Amino acid sequence: MKNKLGLFAILAVVIVVVAVSANASAINEKSTKLAIINNGTTWAHVEMIANATHKNGTNMTLGVDLFIKPGGNSTLDLSQALGYGNEPLPEGTTIRAQSWKGLANTPAGGEGVLNIVLQGWSNTTYPPANTNITPVTFSPVPIVEKPFNITDTMASIALTPDELTKIQSTYPVQEPIFLEEIIIVNPDRSVTIIIVRPPELCRAIASIV
Predict the structure, then answer these.
(1) pLDDT of the chain, 209 residues: tens digit per residue
(2) How far apart are CA 62 and CA 83, in angstroms?
(3) What value, to the nearest 5°, has the Cα angle with vertex 171 and ends 73 and 173?
(4) Which residues pair with 154 in a beta bridge?
(5) CB 52 within 8 A of CB 18
(6) Of the candidates 117, 118, 172, 109, which has an alpha carbon nearest to the alpha carbon of residue 141?
(7) 156 beta partners
(8) Which string of DSSP letters, residue by residue, matches 31-84?
(9) How far apart are CA 78 and CA 28, in angstroms?
(10) Is the Cα dihedral 89, 100, 68, 146 positive or negative?
(11) What residue spans of 66-196 are helical by DSSP H?
C-alpha cells in the first residue's frame, strides 16, 4: 500500500513533474510521448513515479498525478521531461515506473472497472495506426471521492519536492491498484510498454471492501 508523503520523503533525487496535456497541441511533434487513455465509464486517477536518465547523464525521478474523465486521455511528453526537447528519445532508453491507479467519482461509492490503455510513440503528433497499446484492466475497484473542482481531464504539475508534497496533501486518498511498468524506446523510436508486475489490489484496501 502506498504511503504517499513517506514515499516522496525518502527519495534522494530531485523530483521533476513533467507537463501533461489532454490535447496534442501542448506537446512536441517529434518527441517521444506516452498517452494514458480512459476507456472506462468512471473517472480514472493515475499517479506514477518513474526512474530515468536525463540527457545530461544524471539519474532522475519523474512523477505525475492526473485525473482522466471517461473517454478522455492525457499525453505526456517524455522527451521534454528528459531534456531532449523536440527530439525522440534515443534507442534503448528505459524508464521504470511504479504506478497507483484507481477510480473516482462524485459522489463516491460502489465499485467499477478500471479500463485504461497505455500507448507510446515518437516522430508524429498523433499515434500512428499501428502503434502498440498496453491495456490495464482490473475489477472490481472501489470508487473513491473525486475532488469537486475537477471537471475535466487534468494533471497536477510540480517542479520541486515541496510542490509535489503540496499536491499530494490536497488529495491524500490512496489509490487501490498498484503495478509496475517498463517503457522502452525501440530502434525505430516506437515504444514498448511492458507490465512487469500485474495490477493488484492493495491488501489494506482489499481488507475493507
Answers:
(1) 444 433 333 332 333 333 333 334 467 899 999 999 999 999 999 988 888 898 999 888 888 888 999 999 999 889 988 889 999 999 999 999 989 999 999 888 999 999 999 999 999 999 999 999 999 999 999 999 998 888 999 877 554 566 666 666 666 666 789 999 999 999 999 999 999 988 888 744 443 33
(2) 12
(3) 95
(4) 67
(5) no
(6) 109
(7) 65
(8) S-EEEEEE-SSSEEEEEEEEEEE-TTS-EEEEEEEEEE-TT-EEEEEHHHHTT-
(9) 10
(10) negative
(11) 78-81, 161-170
pTM score of the predicted model: 0.81
Q: Which residue has the cell 515541496?
A: 162
What distance separates the 2 farthest-apart alpha carbons in the chain? Answer: 47
Q: How many other C-beta atoms are found inside a 10 Å radius of the C-beta of residue 80?
A: 18
Q: What amino acid is encoded at 95 in this protein? A: I
Q: Which amino acid is at 142?
A: P
Write the CB contacts of 152 (distance below 8 Å, at least 6 apart in sequence). 22, 69, 72
Q: What is residue 155's three-state secondary structure?
A: strand
